[in-house]
Specification:
Number of helices: 11
Helix content: 25-40%
Number of strands: 18
Structural class: alpha+beta
């Protein structure tokens, strides 16, 4: 057995090279079709769609915005392991090993077809073409490895003792190097004439030559695929660079001077674009060309379908507003909340222009379903969208066109609602329907149909398990209750009384508020807890719940040790 290990190791290497070639060629084909059709992206997307809500929530909590990278690395790790096993197996069963590669191509093709944004048969081509190439390569690479001759067997020698017997092959296969009828290799012959039983019957030099060539070609194909994908998105990048956001007809008022507290460790009032949270299912960020982008408005209660271009939106009256967004996956005290200054087109006038009326005024539809270019669907209450709040189709974020990661060219925002029912990125379709007749993506996965943001407060400083010095310690953080506003924030030390914190000035009821409280810290371990009360008089509950189905509840606390 130990003498077989080098051959098995080369077989495993051949399996990895075959998998690498399959993925590289698939990436090249995907560049010609569309990047979302690549096997890793398609399988990853299908995995996200079928992952239980609890597992998704766990991934977001532990990996944050890197959850997609972790998923893709996990897929590649599984594929590599499978390729190793398949390659070692193929040293004995050559055809079966090649068939295993084809099987993974079928899996990738099926995953591509199952995606919400699937464009049909063409989306299967990257997985299928890559799998065929990988299967052929594995079959070819296994040729020089032949088969290990059983101990005690002898190989017939030619007339001079150094030639193959008639009909024998170095690879010990049938005519033209084919496998025997049972799918295994035939009886092996030694590299050069008869030799001791158990001697290797494979051509290492030929294997290395084939493997090196395959690796080089595969690397070139992968590089070409990446280059073509980059070129394909160049028009989208150019269209974003060309955008000049007009001055909004209704500009946001300046942020009050007292709204920004100067406390080390406190979240800034306005979240920079680079730091703004991102939680979505897109493994590849869509890069949409604003010049060719269109938005379609249709459905129940619409007089006639309405189609708008990006330039159509720019020509409309724009508004500018500070709005805090919150993800429903945000745990108590979590990071998935951010505040930005958005520029966009009010959504309600567009709906009224299309003939839409809210249910309270006799409208037929009570749900507005937004669809993105990657097939994601989100459902918002029509009544809420049209109740006078600053629901908008956002075009800009913090003074610049939307970043691609945050929805360029257009995304939807509805203040006061969690993102999964309002903040559709890369939007391309608005359909008027009812909650009874259609369940959007997340509702099908056990999340609530309607989800107003819950009142929450968070301690930013001191950090959990921090070690502040005795004396006056500034405890500070943020609190939010979008579209209701924050009335007060209180802090409790251990089981002591609740102490009212100092609130920063309010910008608008749709933004968070910073707060601070000077604490006379005494040595030892302490638990700091915060609670907020919104303008309706509702105070955060003590009952701790998870994020499913409509957002986490409870009070944030941190444990510190005062030195």
């Amino acid at each position: 057995m130990p003498r077989r290990l080098p051959r098995l190791a080369l077989g495993a290497l051949g399996g990895v090279l075959s998998g690498y070639a399959a993925l590289a060629l698939a990436e090249l084909v995907a560049a010609a079709v569309r990047p979302q059709a690549g096997p890793v992206v398609a399988v990853g997307g299908a995995a996200v769609d079928r992952t239980p809500v609890e597992v998704k929530d766990w991934a977001i909590r532990h990996f944050g915005t890197n959850d997609k990278l972790v998923l893709q690395l996990g897929i590649l790790a599984v594929l590599t392991l499978f390729a190793v096993v398949l390659g070692a197996f193929a040293t004995r069963f050559r055809r079966t090993g090649a068939a295993g590669v084809l099987l993974f191509g079928v899996v990738g093709a099926a995953a591509a077809l199952s995606r919400p944004d699937s464009e049909g048969f063409t989306d299967t081509l990257p997985s299928l073409v890559g799998a065929v190439a990988g299967a052929v390569l594995l079959y070819v690479l296994m040729g020089p490895l032949g088969r290990w001759r059983a101990r005690g067997a002898t190989a017939p020698a030619g007339p001079r003792g150094n030639e193959d017997a008639p009909g024998d092959r170095t690879n010990s296969e049938g005519p033209e190097g084919t496998d025997t009828p049972d799918g295994t290799y035939g009886t092996d012959a030694p590299d050069a004439g008869g030799g001791p039983a158990g001697a290797p019957a494979w051509d290492r030099r030929r294997f290395v030559l084939l493997a090196t060539s395959a690796a080089a070609v595969s690397t070139g194909a992968g590089a070409a695929g990446r280059a073509l994908s980059g070129a394909g998105s160049a028009d989208a990048v150019a269209s974003r660079k060309a955008v000049r956001l007009p001055r909004p007809r209704s500009a946001a008022r300046p942020v009050p001077a007292g709204a920004r507290l100067r406390v080390p460790g406190l979240s800034p009032f306005t979240t920079p674009n680079a730091d703004f949270y991102r939680v979505d299912t897109a493994l590849v960020v869509p890069k949409v060309n604003a010049d060719t982008w269109r938005l379609r408005v249709h459905g129940e209660g619409v007089r006639g379908p309405l189609t708008l271009s990006f330039q159509d939106l720019l020509r409309r009256e724009l508004i500018e507003r500070d709005i805090t967004l919150t993800c429903v996956s945000n745990e108590v005290g979590g990071p998935y909340v951010g505040n930005a200054r958005w520029i966009g087109v009010p959504l309600a006038p567009i709906l009224r222009e299309a003939g839409v009326r809210p249910p309270s005024r006799g409208g037929k539809a009570d749900q507005l379903v937004a669809r993105s270019v990657d097939g994601m669907t989100l459902g918002s209450p029509v009544e809420t969208v049209m109740d006078g709040r600053d629901a908008m189709l956002a075009l800009g974020m913090n003074g610049e066109p939307l970043p691609f990661a945050h929805g360029f060219p257009v995304r939807m925002l509805v203040p006061g609602l969690y993102g999964y029912v309002s903040a559709c990125k890369w939007i391309e379709d608005l359909e008027l329907t009812t909650f009874d007749s259609y369940d959007p993506y997340w509702v099908k996965r056990s999340w609530a149909k309607q989800a107003p943001i819950k009142t929450q407060a968070r301690i930013d400083t001191p950090k959990p398990f921090g070690r502040p010095k005795r004396g006056t310690v500034v405890v500070a953080g943020v609190a939010w209750a979008q579209h209701r506003g924050i009335e007060k924030v209180e802090v409790q030390v251990d089981d002591g009384p609740w102490r009212r914190a100092d609130l920063a000035a309010e910008d608008t009821k749709d933004t968070w508020r910073q707060w601070s409280w000077p604490w006379r810290a005494t040595p030892g371990g302490h638990t700091l807890t915060v609670r907020a009360t919104d303008a309706s008089g509702t105070t955060q509950t003590t009952k701790r719940t998870g994020t499913v189905p409509d957002g986490a509840s409870g009070r944030h606390s941190v444990v510190v040790t005062v030195d």
